[in-house]
Model the fold of this input.
Amino acid sequence: MSVLAASPVALDDAQRRVAHMAASVLLDYPDEEDPGRLAEVRAALPLLPEPVAGPLGRFLDAADGMGVRRLAEHYVETFDRRRRCTLYLSYYDAGDTRKRGASILAFRDALAATGWELVRKELPDFLPVVLELSARSEDDIAGELLASHRDGLEVVRNALAQIGSPYESVLEALCLTLPEIDDETRERYVSLVTQGPPAEMVGIVDTLPFPQFGAAKEARS
Done:
């Protein structure tokens, strides 16, 4: 089993936004029609502390060596066909259970609470979407979502490390931007790695294991 990420790196707000936008771009599907976006991320690396910029730079070097088409094939093989590498964060809370619908709904409510609208055909718990929200929004909601799903992010990082994927470097950099992991999250991470996400349950559980922002949405309406 891979060890947890090192202690978080101190970032100011501007650096956090750059780091999360960079991770959002790199963890999205590689776009053969827009290869220049990787160069844009590389140009932003000097704005970041070396412990965060370094892993992102390693990924960019690997991506340049693979080329966009091969990287896209690796992306599909990794994130679309490996359950423990999925970038849909609700999976690590609810697995393939009926509870997952409520989890996705909570992400949608969180997005609405910030005043932003998802214009692409994607679920709101898709990690690049949450990262872009964190980079663009003045609200702390996206950051809280990321921090509360740290166990799932560590599971993805561990799985990517096991298969030798260059994407592990992006998850490494991302985890360094998040708060220190606590003992409860550490236990959930170990459980997810050893046992996997929940299986189907009888009935629907109302309580979700992460912050819900319905009240914030109502207060802003």
